[in-house]
């Protein structure tokens, strides 16, 4: 694992693995930066009204694409690092919650973790929607990124700033959570067309990891 103390973050343009600008409103599959691990996917949690967000096992592709939208209107659709975004699944998940927007859930008493789930609020940035805003930051490696929860720009009453990492839960599944140990999930983005099952890992990405 790579400690975030050694990672680079800055406000600059973001790119997918084909070296195209990452665009707001466009669906992307989220893959881990290192090979041998699966992409970001959803799964239903028993006795839950929302879907948990997990990492797929082994090299399985993601089962839904994600869409990123700016907190505030922008002059262009390009995404840049360290700006607040809504992240949502492109399709309905047939969840009891009608929202496919990702959010930081309340702390889980059994694990002490804040899990990332669906059920967030789209748009309307402010303290009332503070759990629904994330950022993308650049890290070491070509087109390698991490999700960050750092919503002080949308609500100055909140000073939390944490990476989104992984927590191994029941059944060995890796859940996306707020990280307490500075070890984020490192990721890359693949535009949702072609189908993820046909997407080959780019040598441009893996060569620099």
In whole angstroms, the N-to-C terminal distance is 11 Å
Strand order of the largest sheet: 2-3-11-10-9-8
How many distinct domains? 1
Mean pLDDT: 77
Textual characterization of the structure:
The protein has 209 residues and is an all-beta fold. It has one domain: Trefoil (Trefoil (Acidic Fibroblast Growth Factor, subunit A)), CATH 2.80.10. It contains one helix and twelve strands. The strands form four sheets. A six-stranded antiparallel sheet has the order 2-3-11-10-9-8, with no helix packed on it. A hairpin with a 6-residue loop joins strand 8 and strand 9. The chain is globular, with a radius of gyration of 16 Å. The termini are close together. 39% of the residues are buried. The C terminus is likely disordered.
Provide a compact summary of the structure.
The protein is mainly beta and 209 residues long. The chain has one helix and twelve strands, in the order ββββββββββββα. The chain has one helix spanning 203-206, and strands spanning 28-32, 40-44, 51-55, 66-70, 85-89, 103-107, 114-117, 135-138, 145-149, 162-168, 174-178, 187-191.
List the helices and strands and how they pair.
Layout: E1 28-32, E2 40-44, E3 51-55, E4 66-70, E5 85-89, E6 103-107, E7 114-117, E8 135-138, E9 145-149, E10 162-168, E11 174-178, E12 187-191, H1 203-206
């Amino acid at each position: 694992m790579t400690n975030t103390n050694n990672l680079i973050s800055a406000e600059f343009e973001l790119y997918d693995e084909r070296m195209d600008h990452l665009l707001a409103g466009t669906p992307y599959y989220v893959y881990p930066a290192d090979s041998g691990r699966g992409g970001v996917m959803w799964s239903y949690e028993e006795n839950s009204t929302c879907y948990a967000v997990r990492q797929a096992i082994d090299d399985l592709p993601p089962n839904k694409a994600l869409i990123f939208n700016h907190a505030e209107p922008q002059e262009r659709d390009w995404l840049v690092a360290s700006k607040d975004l809504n992240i949502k699944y492109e399709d309905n998940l047939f969840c009891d919650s009608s929202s496919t927007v990702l959010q930081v859930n309340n702390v889980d008493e059994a694990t002490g973790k804040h899990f990332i789930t669906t059920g967030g609020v789209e748009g309307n940035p402010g303290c009332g929607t503070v759990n629904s805003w994330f950022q993308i930051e650049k890290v070491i490696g070509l087109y390698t990124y991490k999700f960050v929860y750092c919503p002080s720009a949308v609500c100055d009453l909140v000073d939390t700033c944490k990476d989104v990492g992984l927590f191994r839960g029941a059944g060995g599944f890796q859940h996306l959570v707020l990280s307490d140990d500075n070890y984020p999930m490192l990721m890359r983005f693949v535009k949702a067309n072609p189908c993820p099952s046909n997407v080959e890992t780019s040598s441009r990405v893996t060569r620099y990891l």
